[in-house]
Every structure is written in structure tokens, then in C-alpha cells.
Amino acid sequence: VFGAPRLVRNLAITGKRKLPRKNIFIDVEPEEILLQETLLQNSIDQEKLIMIALLIGNDYVDGIKGIGPKTALKIVSKINSLDELFNFLRIKGKGFENEEEVRQAYMIFKEPEIEEIEKEEIFWKEVDEEKLLKFMCEEHDFSEERVKNALKEYKQNKKKQATLF
Q: Which domain holds residue 23?
């Protein structure tokens, strides 16, 4: 929604996830979403993608009850501006509780504040397993067993990759 050309979803999640309100589990794999491809497939532009995010809800505003991604796509395909969206919703007897809040969220997506930072070089060194376990398990309540398994897998993969060079 912010205009990133590429988004990787589920990067830190592995395994299975339960579908809401169903007793069905699905495999969760990392997924790459390309912005231009998504916009073309749905015949929308960046502005309409932002309006979809407003309709279905996001971190900044609650969406409109009863409007999901498919309905939001149908709605934005008929309109060309945020004001047209507000008018369309009023005609349909729906609307946002606070239009000013929605306008602010719209501008956050359309023109996000970007702070220039000085890039530092990254230097890789060996993982301090004791510090990592303390940080992940004691400070952030991760499962010690899962962290240890992830470390074990990391070490195995690191050995494999070292042979590539």
C-alpha cells in the first residue's frame, strides 16, 4: 500500500496456520507480492489500492463492516477519488465514522514521511547463542526449544552455504 515494489509475506512464519472460524489448517510459505503485477492484474492504480486498504481496514483506520477485499475492489473500480468514495458510501448508506481520520490515513499511504538515514556497513560475526536465547526467550517470551531448533538449523545451513564460495 505504501508503494514498495516488492513485498515478502510470511517470511518469519513457517509450518501451518489455522483458518479463522474453521477447523482447517493450511501450509504457510513465504510469498512474494509484486506491486505492478498486482495492480495490473486487478486493473487498478496505487490510489485505488490505498482506497481498498481504507475500505477493508488497516493499522490506521477501521474498515467498513461487511466490505472485504472483493467488494472493495468492485467499489474502487467505479470511482476515481477519495471524495467520490465518500459520496458513493453515503449514497449506499454506509460510511466511515470519521472522514478526517480516513483522509489522514490516505495521506500517510500516499505521501509517507521518509527519513533519510546514513547507511552503515554491516559486519557479520558469530552468533552469541547465550545472548540470543536470553533476548528471544526471557525478554520476548519465545519458546526456548524453538529458538534452539532454529539455531541448530541455522548452523547446518551455514555450513552448507560455506561450500558455495
A: 1-41
